[in-house]
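Long-time lurker, first post. I've been practising inverse folding by hand and with some scripts of my own, and I keep getting stuck on stretches where the structure tokens seem ambiguous. Below is the full token string for one chain I'm working on. Before anyone asks, I'm not after the true native sequence, just a reasonable design that respects the backbone. If someone could post their per-position residues I'd love to compare against what I wrote down in my notebook.
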């Protein structure tokens, strides 16, 4: 593959900086290589495209870079699975540095799951290595002629035909690519059979277990005939004030390790959430019909620690080490080894399917990693199938002769394989909630999705702010943009509509900022790590002083940009509502039994939400109101 440096193509990497930006640009002494690697598989080219300091300072990195690059090419993209779609893999300016959680990478594309703006976030070491290879982002367009892997060895870029990898699991593929390259230092991100088969919620996996799970990024890579991306770097990362960075990290590590929950966090990671959520009565169970699971203690973090955990794992240089390596020692899943699960998987492959057998959840987790499918969407859709058969809305014959029942892990394991291979009913489930509703309209009241994305493992009926968080999330019903459950439960009746909306918007601003910087949100969420610290990090690394408020303003503008991308595909107010299950079907069990999301109350929250964002009553940012889809940051 030819690789050449090109001059800045305006349409690719933003406009030239204006006079006002030039002063800041002179001061930008670190944080960026100022290079995006742009690979066009159809043309067989790889260009290192420079970008301006103004572009860097406006969009920061990660999803900010991804949203801008996608926005500028949007008119060319018809089909999310067509060669014209872009897969943008963008770490942030803090990725790969020694600081808490400096390991995250955003993957951005037009989503095949929802048809709108999509992104997902991946930990591990892949993003750090991409930065060490000298790139701030990787853009992949076009389609390779045959199944291949992309090999980025610093300045050398090759597309290597790899028909022998067809049908292989993502985990096996990672090992095979490393073996072929003969290097353990190389970092590999890979898809499983689900990505090759373009399952709309296919994932991309790296470091054996760190997934970009949501929005179907694995299907986008599969549509490009790329089975894996291998990267090896050797450059230094640009940092304006190295001594300052070292001092700040020493302070940060001191602060984190002296937190009273630090050790407990390392022991359980996100599995600690199971016990809390079930005790609070908000643990989705049996397709979200109930919010308390009678076997929660069989699938929580304490059970994991006692009977299954054999080690910790961490993303690149992260002291939090929240990954749990587990082994099943007995029974029919004996010998299963996997990293995880975390809370979402324990719920979606556990309580949501009536499964109280932790070994079965571990098996499901390991299968999803290897097949390359999202555990949340998979568990959500399988829950719908079980309820549909159990309630007589579908016959067993319509689901390949399976008499589906709650707690039947054999059928769940079988369905995961069918989805990835697109066999029988798995072929329909592989196309996501919208396809299921189209084929079987009678299932609409059972579906728990927003904008075509299956909802994560929190409910909106007990805490209406969480319903608003899902309804307005830019990629669909995803919990990571805003999680307001704890705060609303704590605040109780005294919490006003304004409190709810303010918290949702604050979360939807600060959490995406973490994705732009390339850091993990968990130190902030779980151990109260000071969010201002990240503004200090960004200032030290770039040499340009920034306050948190300045960075939040950029994150907010990027949120407008992602909304404009989706608005260009028809998204508006009508798409910002929770699913019928949340609005029409009362909770069956637990302290919130009988609750639904009240339509009038929700409408009032949505009005206030749009008002506070400066959007129209139809949910459109000002640029679109004027009929001009221009970038709010220019
Ligand atoms: S907190 Fe956990 S998920 Fe986040 S970067 Fe550290 S090890 Fe990875």
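-- Answer (accepted) --
I ran through it position by position. Result:
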């Amino acid at each position: 593959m030819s690789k050449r440096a090109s001059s800045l193509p305006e349409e690719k990497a933003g406009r030239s900086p204006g006079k006002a930006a030039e002063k800041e640009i002179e001061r930008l002494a670190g944080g960026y290589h100022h290079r995006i690697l742009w690979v066009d598989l159809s043309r067989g080219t790889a260009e290192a495209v420079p970008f301006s300091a103004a572009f860097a300072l406006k969009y920061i990195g990660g999803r900010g870079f991804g949203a801008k690059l996608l926005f500028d090419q949007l008119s060319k993209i018809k089909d999310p699975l067509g060669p014209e779609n872009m897969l943008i893999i963008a770490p942030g300016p803090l990725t790969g540095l020694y600081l808490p959680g400096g390991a995250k990478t955003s993957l951005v594309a037009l989503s095949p799951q929802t048809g709108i703006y999509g992104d997902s976030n991946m930990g591990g070491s892949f993003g750090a290595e991409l930065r060490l290879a000298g790139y701030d982002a990787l853009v992949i367009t076009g389609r390779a002629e045959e199944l291949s892997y992309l090999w980025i060895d610093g300045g050398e870029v090759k597309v290597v035909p790899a028909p022998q990898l067809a049908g292989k699991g993502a985990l096996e593929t990672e090992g095979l690519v490393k073996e072929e390259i003969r290097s353990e230092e190389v970092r590999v991100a890979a898809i499983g059979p689900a990505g090759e088969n373009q399952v709309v919620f296919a994932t991309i996996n790296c470091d054996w277990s760190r997934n970009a799970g949501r929005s179907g990024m694995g299907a986008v890579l599969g549509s490009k005939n790329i089975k894996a991306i291998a990267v090896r770097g050797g450059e230094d990362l640009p940092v304006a004030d190295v001594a300052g960075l070292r001092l700040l990290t020493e302070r940060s590590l001191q602060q984190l390790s002296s937190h009273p929950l630090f050790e407990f966090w390392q022991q359980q990671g996100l599995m600690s959430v199971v016990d809390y959520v079930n005790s609070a009565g908000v643990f989705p169970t049996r397709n979200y019909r109930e919010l308390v699971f009678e076997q929660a203690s069989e699938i929580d973090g304490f059970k994991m620690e006692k009977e299954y955990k054999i080690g910790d794992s961490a993303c690149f240089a992260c002291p939090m080490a929240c990954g749990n390596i587990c082994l099943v020692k007995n029974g029919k899943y004996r010998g299963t080894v996997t990293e995880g699960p975390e809370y979402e998987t324990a719920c979606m492959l556990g309580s949501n399917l009536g499964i109280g057998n932790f070994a079965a959840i571990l098996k499901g987790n390991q299968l999803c990693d290897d097949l390359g499918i999202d555990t949340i969407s998979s568990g959500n859709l399988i829950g719908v199938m079980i309820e549909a058969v159990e309630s007589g809305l579908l016959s067993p014959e319509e689901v390949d002769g399976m008499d589906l029942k709650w707690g039947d892990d054999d059928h769940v394991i079988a369905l995961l394989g069918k989805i990835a291979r697109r066999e029988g009913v798995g072929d329909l489930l592989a196309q996501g909630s919208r396809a299921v509703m189209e084929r079987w309209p009678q299932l609409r009241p059972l579906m728990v999705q927003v904008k075509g994305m299956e909802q994560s493992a929190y409910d909106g009926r007990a805490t209406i702010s969480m319903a608003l968080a899902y309804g307005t999330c830019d990629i669909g019903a995803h919990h990571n943009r805003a999680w307001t459950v704890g705060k609303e439960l704590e605040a109780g009746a005294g919490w006003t509509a304004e409190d709810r909306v303010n918290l949702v918007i604050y979360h939807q601003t600060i959490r995406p900022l973490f994705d732009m910087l390339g850091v993990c949100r968990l130190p902030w969420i779980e151990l109260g790590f000071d969010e201002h610290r990240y503004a200090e990090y960004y200032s030290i690394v770039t040499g340009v002083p920034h306050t948190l408020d300045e960075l939040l303003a950029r994150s907010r503008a990027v949120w407008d940009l992602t909304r404009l991308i989706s608005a260009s595909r028809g998204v508006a107010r009508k798409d910002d509502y929770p699913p019928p299950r949340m609005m029409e079907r009362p909770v069956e069990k637990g302290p919130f039994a009988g609750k639904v999301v009240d339509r009038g109350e929700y409408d009032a929250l949505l009005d206030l939400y749009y008002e506070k964002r400066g959007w129209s009553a139809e949910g459109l940012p000002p640029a679109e109101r004027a009929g001009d889809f221009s970038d709010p940051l220019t």
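A couple of notes from the structure itself: The first strand starts at residue 2 and ends at 5. Confidence is low (pLDDT under 50) at residues 2-18. Happy to go over any region you disagree with.
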